[in-house]
Structure formats: C-alpha cells, structure tokens
Amino acid sequence: MPDFAKLDALVIGAGPGGLTGALYLARFRRRVLVIDDGRSRALRIPRTHNMPGYPDGVIGAELMASIRRQAERFGVRFAGGRVESLDREADGFRARWPGGKVRAPLVLLATGTSDVEPSIPYLAEAVRRGTVRYCPVCDGFEVIGRKVGVIADGPAGVREALYLRHFTRRLHVFLVEGERCLDEADRRKLNEARIRLVEEPIASIRLSGGAIVIRHGTAETRCDSVYSALGMRIHTELACGADRDEEGYLVTDPHRQTSVEGLYAAGDVLQGLNQITVAMGDGAIAASAMHLALRRRKGEV
Q1: What are phi and psi of 266, to 5 degrees?
Q2: Of 197, 229, 261, at which residue does a domain stop?
Q3: Alpha carbon 235 to chain centroid distance?
Q4: Same domain membership, residue 125 and residue 223
Q5: DSSP E strand boundaries for 178-273
Q6: Residue 1: predicted pLDDT
Q7: Which residues of the chain have pLDDT under 70?
Q8: Which residues of the chain form beta strands (DSSP E)?
Q9: For residues 43 and 1, what is the distance between their CA atoms, to the nearest angstrom?
Q10: What are phi and psi of 47, to 5 degrees?
Q11: Integer Cα distance of 91 and 8 in angstroms
C-alpha cells in the first residue's frame, strides 16, 4: 500500500467541493490525500449549463476529471475506496477504508448526498436523456414551455412544482402513494397555480421514445420530462458526532468548520443550494481556513 504518512490534511470525497478544497490545499503547499469511492453525484450530470466558463455546457464526469488532473498536477494524492470509519484522536483523526488507513490533523468532509430515486427501468439512460431530472435550479431553463411532471411523496414535491411554474405552465404532480400524502393546504396551492394534481397513485413509469409515460390508475400521462422530488440521503455518517440541522445537514461556522474542531465540510453535505459552484466555494473557504489552522498548529511565521 502507498505510504500516506505525515499528511497535513485528508479530504473525503472527490466531488466539486472535495476536489476544489484539495487543489487549494496543495497550492498552499500542504500534503493532501483524497479518498474517494467514485460515487460523486456530479458524475451523473449529463451536461450542466450553470457552470461559468462553459457556454456550451459541460458533462459532469468530464469536469470532475479535469479538476482532478489539475489537483494531481499540484501534488494531490488519491486513494480509491469508501471510508468506513473516521475517528478523533488526540492529534487529529484516523480514517479507515478497505485495504487502508491513515491519520491526519485536519479533515475536509465532502461526502455529499444521493438522490432517492424513482422506480423506473433504464433510469441511468433516462437521466442521460434529460427525461428524468433532479434539480430545477440546475436545469429548469431546459424545460421552458415543456410538459413536465413532478414525482412526489409529500409537501416537498408541491414546493418543487410551484418552483417549476416559473418555467412552464404544463405541470403535473404525480403521487407515489396517492392523494392521502397531501393535505388540503397543499392541494389548494396547486389548484391556485393551475398545476394538475393526479389523484391516483403511480402504478408505473416507463420510457417511450423521447418521452416518459406515467401510469396512474387506469390512465396514462405522457411528459417530456419528470422531476423526482422524493428527497435526498445526506451522507454525514463520518461526521464524528458534529452538529446537524433539523433536516440532517451539517452545521458549520463561516469558515466551514463543523462543531468538531479540525473537521471541515464542503458541498451538498451542508444545507444550501446543491450546485457545483456553491460546493467549489465551500471547498475554497474550508481549505483557506485549514491552511491558517495548520500555520497555527505548526507555529509557522
């Protein structure tokens, strides 16, 4: 196994936040290791048009590969694997993953989130085509005037449908469990916005040509795209007991340090916009603070 001794910082996760943090730390002349399991949510983005500097958009996997090459050029080291435990020690933290372990005085946690996915055959292909979407902030522009569905299991789906009303009037809300998962106030909001609420629970979802078909009861509705509003899993399992908010996101100070001293966080694991640029900003802020913390620890001038 490679020798990862005498690290200044450990980064867990190689999404936009983790890679940016690692790049900054390396350019601060810090010895950095990134451990990554290859499951960054950004890798699934078929093409984002929100990333500044890419007027024709950029594929998520290509953007991540480019940032990784840049980080490697400045000396960031990488190890593949899923970190199974992160423990506090007197002088920092100890991380373990299958086939490896390492100690570091500071850690940047960039473990992100994952989507609760709808049950649909060939889901990856549907996401690639843009018939299944997860983020109206990212790509609401791409569905302007289109016929769009929202797959919901509660009030969060209503909020997403109301948000999408800015982009299209041709909206339908489909309920996983039928009408009983919404109260009268939510139903009234949809009615006032002239958003169709499909009362019957979803029976099946399938691709059909360039569209997506939702079967409900004995009827079917064909949409150009559907947004899944079924929620997210927030990956804070390695946070060493750091404080979380009521939704489960990590809470940090303005420098992105959690309530656990020496443990910083960046990206979707924090409350806020699930955006590449936001995660990058988090990574830059956290890395800058970590550099100063290392200066204090080492007594550097």
Answers
A1: -150, 150
A2: 229
A3: 10
A4: yes
A5: 196-208, 211-216, 219-223, 225-229, 232-234, 263-265
A6: 40
A7: 1-5, 179
A8: 9-12, 32-36, 77-80, 85-89, 92-97, 100-104, 106-109, 113-115, 132-133, 148-152, 171-175, 196-208, 211-216, 219-223, 225-229, 232-234, 263-265
A9: 27
A10: -170, 125
A11: 12
